[in-house]
């Protein structure tokens, strides 16, 4: 295609050969010795970190070593070599359910049958997030008597 380029336009050549115009300008990149050395250095840093360093930490290590490389190129080299960092999972802690609450003491102590009526009252405040990001308070009251 490039031999015929002086006599035809790019659009005409791409239509004849049924390829996209971007294919005309595409040139394969030949791996250089510098890229091979850089790839080996990335693998060494990755293995030395216990396979926990990602593209940003590896890029910082390379820049400290004197290489001039960005995070995008570091990421591409890691993808080509199938280097994926191991991310630790967060541990989930459950509060101890057997202890009494710290902020408000449990006055009823699970005795839900009071000796006299209208002796204990319970209230609740519910916070609901509003679409503007602020919290709105919705107090409500529960009545045990039928009132009209």
Question: Can you give a write-up of this model?
Answer:
The mean pLDDT is 78. The protein has helices at 10-17, 21-25, 33-48, 55-65, 71-80; strands spanning 125-129, 135-139. The protein has a two-stranded antiparallel sheet. It is mainly alpha-helical. The chain is elongated and about 105 Å long. The chain starts with 9 loop residues before the first helix and ends in a 9-residue tail after the last strand. The chain has 5 helices and 2 strands.
Quick gist of this model?
The chain is mostly helical and 148 residues long.
Write the layout of secondary structure elements.
Blueprint: H1 10-17, H2 21-25, H3 33-48, H4 55-65, H5 71-80, E1 125-129, E2 135-139
Antiparallel strand pairs: 1-2
Tell me about the biggest sheet? 2 strands, antiparallel
Shape: elongated
Radius of gyration: 34 Å
Q: Which bin fits the share of residues in helices?
A: 25-40%
Low-pLDDT sequence parts: none
- Side-by-side strand order of the widest sheet: 1-2
What percentage of the residues does DSSP assign to strands (E)?
5-15%
Classification by helices and strands: mainly alpha
| Number of E strands | 2
Which whole number gives the mean pLDDT? 78
